[in-house]
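Can anyone check this?
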Amino acid sequence: MRLLTSTAALLATGAAVLSAPLAGAPAAKPRLVSSTPAQVGLRWTGVLASATRPTVVARLGASTLPVVVRRMRAGRYRLQAVFRAPGRWTLIAGRHRLGSVLVRPAPVRLTNALDVVVEPTRSLLVADFSNRVFRLSGSRLTLVAGNGRAGRSGDGGRAVGAAIGFPVEVAVDPRGGFGVVHDERWIRHVDPTGTIRTVAEFQQPTALAYDAAGNLFVSELLGGVQRRDAATGAVTTYTGFNRPHGLAVARDGTVFVADTFNNRVRRISPNGTITTLADRLNQPNDVALGPDGNVYATDYESNRIVRITSTGVVTRIADAAGPSSVAVGTDGTVYFTERNRGAVRQVRVATLTAFKPAQAGVAWTAVVVSSRRPAVTARNGVTTQGVAVRALGRRRYRLRAVFPFSGRWQLLLGRRRLGVVTVRPARPLVSSLPGAQAFRLCGGTGVPYPQYALSRDPSTGALWAACRQQTLLHRIDPQSGETRAILRLTSTPYAIAAGLGAVWSAQRGPVVDRIDLRTGRGSSAVTGGGFSYLWTAAGSVWAADDEASALKRYDPVARRVVAGIPTGNGTSALVEEAGRIWIVNHRDGTLQRIDPATNTAVTLARLPGDAPERMVFAEGSLWVTGRGTDLLRVDPSTGAVQATIEIGAGGIDVRAAAHSIWVAVPTDDEDRRGNPFLDRLLRIDPATNAIMETVRPTGRIVVNGTTSTGDALWIADTAVGRLYRIGR
């Protein structure tokens, strides 16, 4: 028993000895499973293997950084950290060294670009709010001055190690190197070797520039513009500016100044004379010279970059959100910086190297310099005009255009403006109608129709003429007779009516379109039926539906048809006077009065003639004519014919103008065919009902539409492309 007991005790003891290392053994050390290099300022992640969640820190010299530890799964943890400085950081968990992380420096970047200039090498110098100056070559950004700290230090040493606090302007020195304005006080210079030194001290300097001789120009917030002679150091002061913020010096020594709070750009001639180049700007705060000889400026409060010609013409070339500086490369590329933006933007603009005025209707040409073939259009208000572009040689292109009317036409490259072409009025035309003025109009309508191609807007007085085959709509100034706008339509109008804020077009079909005068875009207003003629009267649009022998009344405010009024057969004329409306139906010859209050038609009479189809109200009477119909003077109350004036076979149209009644008359043969070829124009005295004058054209005139402006009669010949005005 003792032996057994002793053996059992021995075995128990041995078991205890053997089991001791297992029970008291330390756990496995945490170890990094994966780790990648890091970058200053960016989040780094790694994976740690550990039996328990450790506390991890990163250490670089005396600097420590806590590392976030998150459990992924049993035995695996994710490490996360954002390192503040470059170097090899050691990761430590308790007293265990886990490994190291190589942290690379953050890439150089702009934080708030304040000023940009172009160097002779085409690279850019950028003054940045981070107390640094950078060189931008393509997409490569390198530091050329400033260590990122405020203040002023480092004179005589490397510029990249110097303190340059708040640099606001840089300028290329033609003798080499560049200058910097900083801390609202100092002018520093960095020579071609990269050495920096202080060259001048001013009171709140805002900009600097050098001329070819190295003379320094500095604008001061409250002190005008100073010139510091490079040889003697003598200072010359130019006054009369209000807080100027930008300078540029031309090759001939002319200094251009952004006279910021006077809202203009001024120039100082080499002899010291100060003149204004452009005014009516909105706080311009920088200027630059382009290879095209134009001045480019930032218009801070208008959020735009503008180009100013030698004659002071200002053109917007780009939009910018609070632009602070502008520069132009030798290839015409425009660079600019914006408020609180860590980037430099560029606009590739083809530049005009040859520029001259044009004359309406005559071919105009100019030459542009562009890195590639530009797609150019011309615009005047809502009117656009194609511009032909032909290559002349390397980077040179000839522009050619025929401007249809006079005015200031903007040349556009996409949405960017190249400049302005001043177009003079066209040469006067020889009139085919004796005693009348002739003006150019669109041609190509074809004969003989339409006959309602001319309409007057009673609210604006403007005339509108439609060209059927060209799908064009011309707005004509009744004072000058000149076209002032051209709208391109999507449908071919047969008849138009102007008024109520639009031009209304019938296509001789089931649709009446509303044409927006600001955009030229058409939209369907009335559908269904067969519409040939339409008018505006009593605040509504009236469309004759030939298929239904009805008159559709359209409300332009409610944008819907509010009435369909049964009428006679073939409504072809409608006139309004003092709220009363009359219509003539040319197929059955009936004269009807429309009551706008009840939307009903009352037949007054059946008029004589084959097809009475045109009518006007004047001198208290209705005047009616048409194919096979003399000129009838009709009582508007009863429809009784008061007088018949013999005019021949019939009339094309009738209008009242200059206290006379005018009737356009064709030949007998053309009247039978229904062709509106003018044989003679008759002027009738409404007091005597007698023909006072007969005007015969010297060439063929197609009467595609007539209207009156009170003092003059207008005839549109859209087949030949002429507009005539005659008055007595």
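Reply from J.R.: I decoded it. The first strand starts at residue 31 and ends at 35.
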